[in-house]
């Protein structure tokens, strides 16, 4: 069984080779992104394993099917980059990793909050230059602050519990309330109430047509002045250009992003020797109250092992005539 992994990095090779010891699949690792120009590289592979910024449009899926691909095994939870109706028409099942380590993403979210609040990047750079002044480094106590969590699935639920442990008041928005979180004293509210009343807003919902640009110019205006916004979900949950006006006016006090709407072709690669071509991202990075990380929230040893194990387990189930963790539209 041949599996071609696109957008693979050294850490993918390590985790997948370790997980493959119990399977014995033929793994082919490609650093290139999957798109219409590279789909032919998968010719002869029964299984194609893409990542979050690979392109699985109709033309790509058609090329893959022509080349012999019979299964799309996503090594991610999200699947908004897949043309599911086309995959169904071609008879290409799509499977995914619905959960790997919710703690990895939730803990990275907390790291962004703490780093923004206590101005850690600025403090770190100062002390390395011999500047030990505390001017401009004042933060705030998390205890007693209201944290709004949009999306209370596995990641959102872990994050909510962590913030409750800090002594925060946690309120949630999700069309499917989690009774366990309610038993812990957390409250579900409408999105407008959550945005207007939260000191910190963190996005953990999937990207759908309903949630695309959930945070936009209008919703930013309804947020509590000087609030903190964190996104470790999907980049397109936020209308990114709208953030610049909110940061310039001071309406938005802090911004932490691990995902970016136009990250494809930018994140996961080293562009340090080139001018940054994305003007919106360049402007965001110029603000002292903004931290952007390059989609690394998932990147823990435990999460990588779980992703590889589940992905190859999905392939093994398909090989045995079953479908595990199938995506349907």
Q: Could you characterize what this model shows?
A:
By secondary structure, this protein is of the alpha/beta class. It has two domains: 2-100 and 300-319, Rossmann fold; 102-292, Rossmann fold (3-Layer(aba) Sandwich), CATH 3.40.50.720. The chain is 36% helix and 14% strand. The protein has twelve helices and twelve strands. The protein has helices spanning 10-19, 58-66, 84-90, 102-117, 120-128, 154-165, 179-183, 191-197, 217-222, 240-249, 279-285, 301-319; strands spanning 2-5, 26-29, 47-49, 71-73, 94-95, 146-150, 169-173, 187-188, 200-203, 227-231, 252-257, 290-292. A seven-stranded parallel β-sheet has the order 8-7-6-9-10-11-12, with helices on both faces. It has a five-stranded parallel β-sheet with strand order 2-1-3-4-5, covered by helices on one side. Helix 3 links the parallel strand 4 (71-73) and strand 5 (94-95). Helix 1 crosses helix 12 (301-319) and helix 4 crosses helix 6 (154-165). The longest helix has 19 residues, at 301-319. It is globular and about 60 Å long. It holds the Pfam family 2-Hacid_dh_C. Keywords: NAD, Oxidoreductase. Belongs to the D-isomer specific 2-hydroxyacid dehydrogenase family.
In short:
With 329 residues, the chain is an alpha/beta fold. The protein contains twelve helices and twelve strands. The strands form two sheets. Strands 8-7-6-9-10-11-12 form a seven-stranded parallel beta sheet, sandwiched between helices. A five-stranded parallel beta sheet has the order 2-1-3-4-5, with helices on one face.
Which short descriptors sum up this protein?
36% helix, Rossmann fold, alpha/beta, 12 helices, globular
């Amino acid at each position: 069984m041949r599996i071609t992994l696109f957008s693979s990095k050294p850490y993918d090779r390590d985790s997948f080779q370790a997980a493959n010891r119990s399977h014995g699949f033929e793994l082919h690792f490609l650093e290139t992104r999957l798109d219409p120009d590279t789909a032919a590289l998968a010719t002869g592979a029964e299984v194609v394993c893409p990542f979050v910024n690979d392109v699985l449009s109709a033309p790509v899926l058609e090329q893959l099917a022509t080349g012999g691909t019979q299964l799309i095994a996503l090594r991610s939870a999200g699947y908004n980059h897949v043309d599911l109706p086309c995959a169904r028409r071609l008879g290409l099942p799509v499977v995914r990793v619905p959960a790997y380590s919710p703690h990895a993403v939730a803990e990275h979210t907390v790291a962004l909050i703490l780093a923004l609040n206590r101005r850690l990047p600025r403090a770190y750079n100062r002390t390395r230059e011999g500047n030990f002044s505390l001017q401009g480094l004042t933060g705030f106590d998390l205890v007693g602050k209201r944290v709004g969590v949009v999306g209370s699935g596995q990641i959102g639920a872990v994050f909510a519990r962590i913030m409750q442990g800090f002594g925060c008041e946690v309120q949630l928005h999700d069309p499917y309330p989690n009774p366990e979180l309610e038993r812990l004293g957390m409250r579900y509210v409408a999105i407008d109430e959550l945005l207007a009343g939260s000191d910190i807003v963190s996005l953990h919902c999937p990207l759908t047509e309903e949630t695309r640009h959930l945070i936009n110019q209008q919703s930013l205006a309804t947020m509590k002045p000087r609030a903190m916004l964190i996104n470790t979900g999907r980049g397109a949950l936020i209308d990114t250009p709208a953030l610049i006006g909110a940061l310039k006016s001071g309406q938005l006090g802090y911004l932490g992003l691990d995902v970016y709407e136009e990250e494809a072709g930018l994140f996961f690669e080293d562009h340090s020797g080139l001018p940054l071509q994305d003007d919106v991202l360049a402007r965001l990075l110029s603000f002292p109250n903004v931290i952007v990380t390059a989609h690394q929230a998932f990147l823990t040893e435990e999460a990588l092992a779980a992703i590889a194990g589940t992905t190859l387990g999905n392939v093994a189930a398909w090989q045995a005539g079953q479908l595990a963790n199938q995506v349907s539209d």
